[in-house]
């Protein structure tokens, strides 16, 4: 199959470059550079160079509060855009806030509280221009089910359990602390460990779970399971079909769901009319409330909101558990909820930043989101983050800066102070329709298809997380998502690829013979490329894999009666680093090859690798003349050199 | 600093190769290949092809019991070597066994038991020819301190606690199960996750800890701390200096220590005389026992062995905890001890296999070691593995096969049945000297120096594990070793290297401009190489890093008034794989570049990467003509093409 020819190396003009060990770095420098690239790869202090002390102070302040930067060039024209955007998102956010609070098993008003304080804090500290801050469905659900595992949200008499609310604030506080710490200590890359595929599956599963939960409100079922898996929910639904459903509720729920879906369709089809979809939920709430109010349908069994506490956020610092067993529980829940909220928020920020080509500092975003949740936890808010649906509307409505969040916040304030009593007759069914229509957007079938097409293992991760959430629980789904993500990393570092290289005819280029079938092997020389850094986690595998390439090759050469393999050239270009275990494996490889009478030759080791080859004296062991700057150099030298002497 | 020239591309003959998407694989094939490379990379079933059923059965048996393979060609000449080797190692193993049992807080006889059954099992199932099986110092210490955390080894009256011994067998059983399972399910690569550097540090720390513990026996101290950290031990030692030390004990201990050290020195200096160092411990025991026996020094406060149970291993199946809380504790301890024993055993096996150039199947070794520990746990043995000192002696004494283990096992049997009562007067001090002289070899200062020279971060890992063990405890040291190893893997996958490439003068080769200062940049084209697979864990970083390269380059180009950058070429050779997060990042990169009026060009993507670029339609997005088989091709085409049109 594979051809093996002695090539005419004279055909290509060629200069041979020697590989010199790079100048030595001292430990301090090496550590400094390593730390810098790991934690300060964006060089946050670049702008501080050669500045006076007051300027530096101002730069620091400006770093913490970006509003000081863009605020100086803020104009009335920009404010016009922000005002319209803010008013548009508030019409979307008020009904969502009320509905999402119930997902977290909290009273309605906490949703509105959470759309008042955190957006204000973010407006001063955040660097994304398009994000809209507030409670979101998935985090509300996650927080609700984690909290519910610890404390029952309701007392036995059906009144809200005060301890549950306190634990919610505690978790929110620690979610904020987690987010702040990740950003401050520049550990933001940790959230990258949740793979895109796992997130798509997790979000989709959470959306299905949330939608299923809404069947309770939509069908007017009174006794409903507390579990979130699809089987328990379906049992609850079917079990009550004969005497638990309420037709008036179903009528209200379905008609407003159809109305909102049509509005959404219009908003999507004609981008000019995006506001139709944005105000549909608010119109639904107003109309439904009005209808129920005048028909007294609540007397017919239509469940209504009944009561929303009036007034602005009360302080809640004293409600956070600062001691006791709930401190630890709140901490654990907070870390998980904070990480997920951050993942969602940062992803949304990045999407718009790349769409509009501005730079988003991930670590700064985390500090901003952490701060808003810390402040929020002290002012009766629960975990908030960037909302995808509201951010998209914010963007389409033409917002220019975070001022749109301030506008939204102010209108929510007015709502809290004046309008909340009017929500008394709002039927739960219309809130359920609002939630269902909001979360269907999270089921990203297009992304799943793309996953299927481009990476089957990623697709499995996605499906695993999805089924974990809908058939078991949000926590299990999340666990599966994280586990699959980590398993993939472990596989990546233990089983790197290797390839046998051949020469592309008429060039000096050596390529994988599987990918380029016209590449020809070189007589007496086996060229193998290792496609990864060589670390303790894979050094043994790589050694054994290389020896296996050699054994196969020797068998083939023998069966074709070709000259025996004298040189094993390892193309090191992709080997970005090597550690002591790697060097150790190479030493063993060298010994084995010597037994087999084969010379070990290295081509194009990177600077760090070269340095380690020299400092460990491996370069001297195999002979410095066995290290070349390219495969072409190596082949040229080896095949023109006199018959190889025995090693 | 960096030169920027327009190169004369005509100077090198050049054919341009197109990059075609590789033929599509179906999911099943893809999964099969992935699984094969991960778990069956050594193609264990290769020899089974085209064989009849009985032959296959025999091959399976031969796979499980390699003795059926080499046994057929076993000769008397080989046996002679094995006999001598077996007799030599037994003289080393008997005193060590007795001493090591005390490290695990077990009665003396359990050490001898453990050198009888497990070596026999290994002889039939193991594939290493030079390894000598038995209890080893580090695993004994680790097991002892883990068990001690759960149950006190002694009753209040000073008699051995039966529950402790039972837990030891339970842990041994699960150590064996762990080892067997790792091998059977081909998960052997998991032990590669403990990095070489961490092991060097951990072993060194354990050796120091063990040696310090021996001060009790060596100085004849009666009341000694139970903690293993250096500070507690030193306090115990100094606290008893005035009235707790026994000069006769010290005399015995020090003189035999000097004797064994001299013997070791001779054995090392003249390799012919290796047997001097091998039999020195046994001679010490005999002489010391004889002296104490006739002088009745035990009456003067010299602590002696007093009693070793006579007879062969009693069965212990019924002593293993099959239920209750100790089942779980035994399991946990077993997993840890089993992994460490395996790491040590496999490393020793590999060392000799590479020295003598034979193949060692890691997974088979694990199955063999697992089996010997499972059988051992049922016959009153505790965790055993390959011992470095005894394996080295075995090798030097000229062993040929595992028959030397059988010889050793037989002599241990004779010892158990006939000689144990003679050990009555053996002073503990001489056992302490034997342990100290055995473990100093584990402190590998040369390896630590090599680590310092070749990789500073590896050195830190080594030192961290070392200090963790000696200043805190074996478990903490182990935890540090594992944590550092994992942190390194995480760093590796989150912060891959990138490099700016230039053309080596007179060639078509593009190399890192930092490593090759004479490489010249190409006008209007920025070439960046990404040195890693692009996965969710690093895709964001890579995108941002590439944009940073571009920003720096644009600044420099502007300051030198050179033509602006029109093309960004990404050299993809080292990018061995890309997942959907990676594709996603590339899409964002493409969008951002379009805003900046720069074309994105890819060079030499690997087959899997090419396939994903096509299946995700990213190739069509950037244009298939923007993907080249090499940087040289890309540069040649881009710089000869007419002025780039606006993207």
From TrEMBL, chains A, B:
Pfam families: STAS (PF01740), Sulfate_transp (PF00916)
Transmembrane annotation, as ranges: 130-147, 167-185, 197-215, 245-266, 273-295, 331-353, 365-385, 405-423, 430-452, 458-491
Membrane topology according to the record: Multi-pass membrane protein
Organism superkingdom: Eukaryota
Signal sequence region: none
Keyword annotations from UniProtKB, A to Z: Membrane, Transmembrane, Transmembrane helix, Transport
Record InterPro entries: SLC26A/SulP_dom (IPR011547), SLC26A/SulP_fam (IPR001902), STAS_dom (IPR002645), STAS_dom_sf (IPR036513)
GO BP term, example: transmembrane transport
Compartment(s) where it occurs, according to its Swiss-Prot or TrEMBL record: Membrane
STAS domain: residues covered: 515-638
Gene3D superfamilies in UniProt: STAS domain
This protein's GO CC annotations: membrane
Main location: membrane
Family: Belongs to the SLC26A/SulP transporter (TC 2.A.53) family.
Record NCBIfam families: sulP
Protein name per its UniProtKB record: STAS domain-containing protein
Originating species: Carpinus fangiana
